[in-house]
Amino acid sequence: xxxxxSFTEMFMNCRVPSSKRYQPTEYEHAANCATHGLWILPSLVxxxxxxxxxxxxxxxxAAWLYGSGLTGLFIxxxxxxxxxxxxxxxxxxEQRFHMCDRIAIYFFIAASYSPWLMLRELGPWACHMxxxxxxxxxxxxxxxxxxxxxxxxxxxxxxxxxGSVPATVILSMRAGVCELAMGGILYMVxxxxxxxxxxxxFAHAIWHLFVAAGAGIHxxxxxxxxxxxxxxxxxx
Length: 236
Hints:
Elements: H1 6-11, H2 26-37, H3 40-52, H4 57-86, H5 91-119, H6 124-147, H7 152-164, H8 167-170, H9 177-194, H10 203-226
Helix pairs in contact: 2-4, 2-10, 3-4, 4-5, 5-6, 6-7, 9-10
C-alpha cells in the first residue's frame, strides 16, 4: 500500500507499476500544462528573431528548422498535458496526443543540432550527420507509432542516444561547447525527475523546467555564436 502524508496527497498520487501510466493530481496537471505552455510565445519570438537576423539562405533554413522544432515541442507538450487533464477519459484521443508529444521530442533534438551542423565547418562527418539526425528522428517516430509505451526503457535510451551521438561531431568546436554541454547536463539531470512520478511531487513539471532551461541555454549559444558574428571569439 502507498503511504503518504495528507499534505503530499494533495500534490502527488502514489507511484504505479511500470505497466501502468501515472495519474497526476489536479495540481500536477495544471503545473504540467503551465511549465511548457508559458514558453510557446517566447519560442515563437526567438525563432523569428533568428530568422530575421539570418545572413543568407542557410541561416534562414537553420533558423526555420530550429524555431519550428523548439516551438513544436512546447505546443505538442502543452496540448498533450491539456488533453490528459481535461479529456483523459477519451483514452484513444489522449493516446494520439501522447504519441505526437513523444514524436516531437525526436524532431526537437534533430532541430537543436541542425544550426551547428549546417553553419559550422566541422569536418566530413558533419555532412553526413546533417541528414542522419533527421533519419534518426524519423526512425524514432516510427518506433513511437508502432510500439508506443510498450518498452519505455528502450524509448528513453533512444532519446539519450539521439541526443549524444551527434554531439561527438561538434566536440571539435571551441566557441559554444560550454553552453551546449551545460544545456545537455540540464537535460540529463532532468531525466531523474522524468522518471520520478509518484516519488517527487510535481516531478514531471520539474522535468519541464529543466527542459526549458536547457533549451534556453542552447538558444543563447545559437544566437551568440551563429547569428551574432560580431560576438564570435573564434571560428571553428
